[in-house]
UniProtKB/TrEMBL annotation:
SUPFAM superfamilies xref list: DNase I-like
Chain segments annotated as coiled-coil in the UniProt record: none
Keyword flag Ion transport: no
Keywords attached to this entry: Membrane, Transmembrane, Transmembrane helix
Domain of life: Bacteria
Residue ranges of the TM segments: 6-22, 43-59
Stored InterPro entries: Endo/exonu/phosph_ase_sf, Endo/exonuclease/phosphatase
Domain (Endonuclease/exonuclease/phosphatase) ranges: 110-315
Full protein name: Endonuclease/exonuclease/phosphatase domain-containing protein
Length: 352
């Protein structure tokens, strides 16, 4: 029986170490990219296996010391990976000061196209009364319901409903100008770019995205998703005005491609130093990670950020309140080098 325990622990140890290292392989095939998602879960499993190894099996041979040593190294490696998203790490975007009141609130909700619990979203919209609502996976049914329910409270609207799970609706109390619906990589997947004027006449540029995920049945490769995000990153890097990129990016906050996007664009992640704020999967607590994002230029300060109650979708909505400062703080931008620039361009060219 003791030998069986040994074999089981060895197998589990090998699996968790392999799962941790697979994302280091820079391949766009979905089986490589999917292992980037459960970072916290891998950390917990690695810890459980390590504790079980030491307490149940013990360290009785050179092999035991070697395997447990690898688990310890993997534990510290995974700890290093999740540390930037813990509240005890430095904030990448500073919080508002006492004299800075939020002048913008954004509610993002991937509603899941086939979800028909509209009343739950309606209740959330009424409660939070956000200045800007970005709804994803919206078909005509969702558009009609939304316009009828709360459309009258939002003077500016972008209604790009579709039946392929890539519809996008934007409702805004703030003035939208120079609004464009674009199809950056694929003609069936829209994104929106618009200028948003705050009540104090400050203006920022909003990019709303929902790229295609690398999953069987849709696209086996992450190339198109990565290229759309990185193409926007290149555009943002040239912007002179404050910028927000928001939406369901179908990518986790810590992935290689998202990190590359932050480097290329110069944007900041409000999650860093505050928490994971996992938005998917709303119905499976053990399989959750952050897919819905709000990335900001250094002009913004964070008043608050939270995930909201479920609305019947497989995603939790996320609400963020921001203050737009006249002073840009780019001290926490990630460093970008020539290799990063070349890698981003190669991914874009591969998709196009």
């Amino acid at each position: 029986m003791e030998q069986l325990y040994h074999i089981i622990i060895w197998i589990l140890s090998g699996i968790i170490i392999i799962f941790s290292l697979i994302p280091l392989i820079r391949n766009d095939y979905w089986t490589f990219r999917v292992f980037e998602f459960p970072r916290l879960q891998k950390w917990v499993l690695n810890l459980l296996i390590l504790v079980s190894y030491v307490s149940v099996i013990g360290l009785n041979s050179g092999v035991d010391y070697a395997v447990s040593g690898l688990l310890v190294l993997n534990f510290f490696y995974l700890s290093y990976q999740i540390y930037p998203f813990l509240p005890l790490s430095p904030k990448q975007i500073q919080s508002t000061s006492k004299d800075q009141q939020a002048d913008l609130s954004i509610l993002i909700s991937n509603v899941y196209q086939y979800n028909r619990d509209f009343h739950k979203l309606e209740k959330l919209v009424d409660k939070e009364d956000a200045d800007l609502i970005i709804m994803l996976e919206t078909d005509k049914w969702w558009k009609d319901k939304s316009v009828e329910s709360f459309g009258h409270r939002y003077s500016y609207q972008v209604l790009e409903d579709q039946e392929n799970t890539y519809g996008m609706l934007i409702f805004s109390k703030l003035e939208l100008t120079e609004t464009k619906v674009r199809h950056i990589i694929k003609k069936e997947i829209p994104s929106v770019i618009t200028n948003v004027r705050l009540k104090n006449n400050k203006t920022f540029r909003l990019y709303a995205l929902h790229p295609e995920p690398p999953v069987p049945g849709e696209n086996l490769y992450s190339t198109a998703r990565d290229a759309e995000i990185l193409r926007v990153g290149q555009e943002v890097a040239k912007e002179e005005m404050p910028v927000i990129v928001a939406g369901d990016l179908n990518d986790v906050a810590w992935s290689y491609s998202t990190t590359l996007f932050l480097k290329i664009s110069g944007l900041l992640d409000p999650r860093r130093g505050r928490g994971f704020f996992s938005t998917f999967h709303a119905k499976h607590p053990l399989f959750r990670w952050p897919l819905d994002h709000v990335f900001c230029s250094g002009h913004f300060r964070v008043a608050s950020m939270k995930t909201c109650k479920p609305v019947g979708s497989d995603h939790f909505p996320v609400l963020i309140k921001l203050y737009l400062s006249a002073i840009e703080d780019d001290s926490e931008e990630l460093d970008v080098d020539e290799e990063d620039v070349e890698t981003a361009q190669e991914k874009i060219e591969a998709a196009l």
